[in-house]
Design the sequence.
């Protein structure tokens, strides 16, 4: 009998340890994702560039809040190493002063132009420690900042437009190289005592290209290196793009894929859709996406980040893309209506 009790206690302890490891027990003190049934909103509002990325526009955060009627808890921006390798203290401070958590996309690349092989900040060079000096300086300043910061390296890893994708790194072997680079960055940050950093693994909902070597979960560095999963799931990205995306169907596939890989982390959804699409109603996409996340179909989803940006695709203004909610009142109204029955946590604090 005593032996049975000991075995039961041992199993319970082991199960608890697994649960804590899987669900990110090492989050910074005072930082909490929303409880099940509650969502936080986030906004990614970058300056226009060739890739639609760049530094965040604080005015657009205010415009997003006005368009949705809700205060975002997360502000996302790209830290482009092609411009500056220093810790973005001014930007994260501005975000914190607005009562939001900064989410930094660590863009270690030479250009923000898509579909380019990286000549300098290669996965191999990162893993070999060739940028450890810059990374350690970055980590020390992050530690001094003190407040929680969500950080990712390898944006939309299974999307071949980015240089860390396997397409540019020997396909299957690219998964190994990426894991080595990601783990190295995380270890450097930890060695410098930046315990306020929350590490995100960012995957695209649909692999592009859809090849066996480009499976999203095959790049995953491991539970001990990641605290949260970010999933990009977009509607249309250009005004003449056709084909409506079924948000619920795609999310169910993503959830199943994560479960098959035994990945059980909090999930953040990054999304958006073109406001002026001629063929797919953007208000319909917003309604479906927000309404489905407002329920408890996917209790692991903790935040809904909107890509509130506009950018040029070519020299024809009619081809310009915009996902800014303030550019289409019917879409912003659909967003607000879908949020009516949703509990919103406007700060990621305990």
Sequence:
């Amino acid at each position: 009998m005593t032996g049975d009790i000991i075995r039961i206690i041992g199993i319970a302890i082991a199960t608890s340890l697994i649960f804590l490891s899987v669900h990110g027990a090492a989050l910074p003190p005072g930082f909490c994702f929303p409880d099940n049934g509650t969502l936080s909103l986030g906004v990614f509002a970058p300056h226009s560039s060739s890739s639609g990325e760049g530094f965040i526009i604080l005015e657009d955060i205010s415009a997003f809040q006005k368009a949705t009627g809700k205060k975002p808890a997360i502000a996302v921006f790209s830290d482009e190493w092609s411009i500056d390798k220093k810790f973005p203290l001014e930007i994260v401070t501005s975000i914190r002063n607005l009562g939001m958590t900064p989410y930094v996309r660590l863009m270690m690349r030479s250009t923000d132009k898509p579909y380019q092989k990286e000549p300098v900040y290669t996965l191999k060079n990162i893993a070999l420690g060739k940028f450890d000096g810059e990374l350690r300086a970055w980590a020390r300043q992050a530690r001094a900042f003190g407040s929680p910061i969500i950080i990712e390296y390898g944006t939309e890893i299974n999307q071949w437009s980015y240089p860390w994708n396997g397409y540019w790194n020997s396909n299957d072997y690219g998964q190994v190289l990426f894991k080595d680079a990601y783990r190295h960055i995380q270890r450097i940050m930890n060695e410098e005592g930046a315990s306020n950093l929350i590490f995100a693994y960012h995957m695209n909902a649909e692999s592009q290209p859809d090849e066996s070597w480009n499976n999203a979960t095959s790049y995953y560095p491991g539970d001990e290196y990641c605290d949260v999963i970010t999933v990009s799931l977009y509607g249309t990205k250009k005004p003449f793009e056709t084909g409506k995306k079924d948000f619920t169907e795609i999310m169910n596939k993503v959830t199943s894929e994560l479960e098959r890989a035994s990945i059980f982390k909090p999930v953040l959804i990054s999304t958006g859709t073109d406001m002026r699409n001629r063929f797919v109603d953007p208000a319909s996409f917003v309604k479906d996406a927000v309404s489905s996340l407002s329920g408890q179909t996917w209790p692991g989803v903790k935040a809904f980040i909107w890509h509130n940006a506009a950018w040029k695709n070519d020299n024809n203004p009619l081809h310009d893309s915009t996902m800014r909610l303030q550019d289409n009142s019917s879409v912003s109204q659909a967003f607000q209506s879908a949020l009516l029955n949703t509990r919103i946590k406007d700060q990621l604090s305990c």
